[in-house]
Inverse folding.
């Protein structure tokens, strides 16, 4: 049985390209006692993975050149030497980008039947959904009537942030990179949505937030963030989740210093990664599942088909090609 | 009885100068029933007052051109029509820069006899000491063995921050602008002190913080802050207290964007002003008084004499002329 693997061919300088990735083929592995053989069903491509392609120290260890790239994967158990994971079980975990993988089951989460499509465990009920949940509800803690801005609002994290803020009774403003995405955000219930590629972002945000900004969930950074900082209310809370605007930068990004604005407003800026909240994950999944089942949360996926399309789906993240969760359906 | 007042002559562009201030003379006022006449004893000059000289919206309302400048003052009651403040009482409050002022007593705090020199109620036991207390102990929460950096360490706030961090068992690094200040910080018990005017600040901080930085109490901003951000440990806490490096800037300061560094470390950056903690002031004064009485806290003042010297003492803040609290002794 043939098994394709995608490896880091070289560390990208600036934007990754097709040459960043190397496909290799080997025999599918055979599970030993205590192991299962997993067949990859869905592969998640996420902006944070760009960081792991660099050698720089960050919150997750770098990928090694020549080694498989790894990330969120939904897989099916196709051979089992492990009682708790019988053949047919569906699991989600951090797994290599390959068609078949053996595992001892550690770090794998079994996907329960029923509540949602299995791919949602890479989205609404997985890392992006929980990132939105803890970043917004623990760090920002929006109150009814407050104004919440979310950048990258049409992404997997952002669209959940906006809907959660609406559940909490806030006024919600999203920024996104196309008119189609803006229209979609309005459909989801965002009060205002701004196409940052065509609008004067500072003017558009000021017009959309006449009472200032109480909470900012930042997935993007750069000029959108500069504009939000000018609108902060006293005791504003900023959840610093991502900086996709600068992930491919070849020089350290420079901009207006934010400290003066944060000082004048007694604002809080909190960087975080969803693993900071690992002990609270089950609580988050439960609440998100409940709101989804009640029709209070919608979710969207951009699904590409075919193992060989994984690099293209990843590269598309930086071109804004996806609305909602970017996934590759493998089998 | 003659009464001199110092007014804002014009809003400064860049650094204030002698021309920023206007002296006027009038008759000392007479207290009506329910009022006291206050004779100014000590005037506090503080970096934050530069912000009030600009028209820009900030956490405290701007001074008006032509109106008296006001700030922290220790005064003595010399005439009284108010039972609770008999003649001879000493008070501290936010009062105009003038020799005599009438007051209905609202917003004035009576200075208890005994625990410390009366001027300390503008320093260790006043706004600067409480700023250090709440910023460090509530926002940074240093733990024993952690590394704390404080910029502007030889100022009224910074020297208290460093000593409080030592009380909590942390390793403490201070930055200051002269070799004399550096020597003084060592005397106070700082583990390391760096003259940012002569050192390569990034190299010196990296050498002084071999285990990284867990807490940063920022009074200064600019390049010192850039260097600290490069050394942050996971879950670092930053109390954003002042930005004296940019208070006289004529253009919005620009620098490396910090968000990427704060994101990678799940760091918290919290802007604050001591009035955010108004309800907890008595607790803070009590604890600082106790540590001072026990000899665990020392304090330093740079006292200039004479009402006419108030503008010079203020301007000296931006030249780093003061060690500890800058005060003017008026009478």
């Amino acid at each position: 049985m043939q098994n394709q693997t995608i490896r880091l061919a070289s560390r990208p300088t600036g934007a990754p390209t097709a040459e960043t990735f190397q496909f290799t083929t080997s025999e599918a592995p055979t599970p030993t006692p205590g192991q299962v053989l997993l067949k990859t069903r869905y592969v998640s491509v996420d902006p944070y993975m760009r960081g792991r392609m660099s050698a720089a120290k960050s919150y997750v260890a770098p990928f090694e050149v020549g080694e498989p790239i790894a990330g969120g994967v939904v897989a099916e158990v196709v051979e089992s030497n492990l009682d708790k994971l019988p053949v047919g079980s569906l699991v989600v975990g951090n797994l290599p980008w390959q068609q078949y993988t053996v595992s001892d089951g550690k770090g794998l989460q079994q996907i329960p039947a029923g509540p949602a499509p299995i791919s949602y465990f890479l989205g609404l009920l997985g890392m992006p959904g929980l990132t939105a949940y803890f970043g917004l509800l623990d760090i920002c803690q929006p109150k009814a009537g407050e104004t919440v801005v979310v950048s990258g609002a049409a992404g997997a994290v952002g669209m959940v942030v906006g809907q959660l803020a609406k559940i909490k009774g806030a006024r919600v403003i999203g920024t996104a990179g196309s008119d189609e995405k803006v229209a979609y955000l309005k459909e989801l219930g965002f009060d205002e949505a701004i196409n940052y590629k065509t609008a004067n972002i500072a003017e558009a945000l000021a017009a959309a937030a006449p009472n200032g900004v109480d909470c900012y969930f930042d997935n993007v950074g750069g000029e959108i963030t500069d504009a939000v900082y000018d609108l902060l209310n006293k005791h504003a809370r900023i959840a610093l989740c991502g900086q996709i605007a600068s992930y491919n930068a070849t020089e350290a990004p420079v901009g207006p210093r934010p400290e003066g604005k944060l000082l004048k407003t007694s604002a809080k800026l909190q960087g975080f990664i969803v693993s900071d909240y690992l002990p609270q994950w089950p609580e988050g999944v439960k609440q998100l599942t409940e709101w989804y089942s009640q029709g209070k949360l919608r979710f969207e996926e951009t699904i590409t088909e075919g193992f060989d399309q994984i690099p293209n789906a990843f590269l598309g993240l930086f071109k804004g090609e996806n609305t909602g969760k970017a996934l590759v359906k493998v089998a």
Observations:
- The mean pLDDT of chain B is 96.
- Residues 49 and 185 of chain B are 25 Å apart (CA to CA).
